[in-house]
Specification:
Largest sheet: 7 strands, antiparallel
Order of helices and strands: EEEEEEHEEEEHE
Number of strands: 11
Radius of gyration: 17 Å
Helix content: 10-25%
Length: 210
């Protein structure tokens, strides 16, 4: 289902049959549910994947790049909710992710909220966050901008993010709204589905059928 903003586990990609490169639908079991999205053309299926305690992360970068040196990265995360988080909305996960950007670049941090969204009946929240200037490891100063789609599942929380690094940025982040909405649309259909006992990849119960 396409989200509409108002303001180490087994993964599987299922390529569309065509002579032209097209996005591939990626479905992954993350804690209590299956999370699916469209991996845009040019990205590796999986460059890094890890489950550590209550946290899951999966990263994909452009072909020819690495998770240490990249210009674009798509990240999927999962957070296993504890009982105290049962009533938390997805905006809280978006705020947590934005907080990481803010701590990295308090002087150049910017955020543009796109608002609430729905995916397969589950509540979501979309925002774009930016470090206008940040230094990361061996890299020189650069900007880092990401669209963040946070989702509250049946019990756990998930996010799909598309980040881009570029020259140091001083412009108005709000002026790039259409660019980042287009990035979000390229990730659709985003799916969140129940895990069917005994079902294996490519998880036909969660394949887009409408």
């Amino acid at each position: 289902m396409m989200p509409t903003p108002s303001g180490a586990q087994e993964s599987k990609t299922a390529p569309a049959s065509s002579s032209e490169p097209k996005p591939v639908q990626t479905i992954t079991p993350i804690f209590s549910q299956l999370i699916g999205f469209s991996l845009p053309t040019g990205f590796n299926p999986v460059d890094f994947e890890q489950t550590q305690g209550d946290n899951y992360i999966r990263e994909s970068v452009l072909r020819g790049e690495t998770v240490d040196r990249w210009t674009q990265m798509i990240t999927v995360t999962g957070l296993k909710a504890n009982p105290g988080m049962a009533n938390e909305p997805p905006i809280e996960l978006a705020k947590f992710i934005a907080g990481g950007f803010h701590r990295a670049c308090p002087d150049t941090f910017a955020v543009t909220p796109f608002g609430e969204a729905k995916v397969d009946g589950y509540a979501g929240y979309v925002a774009v966050v930016r470090c206008g200037s940040v230094t990361d490891g061996p890299s020189s100063a650069h900007s880092e901008t990401a669209i963040v789609f946070a989702i509250k599942g049946t019990t756990d929380f998930y996010s799909v993010q598309w980040a881009e690094r570029g020259p140091v940025a001083t412009g108005d982040l709000a002026s790039e709204k259409n660019k980042w909405l287009d990035r979000l649309n390229q990730l659709t259909p985003v799916r969140i589905c129940p895990i069917v006992p005994g079902e294996k990849a490519p998880y036909p119960s969660c394949q887009q059928s409408h």
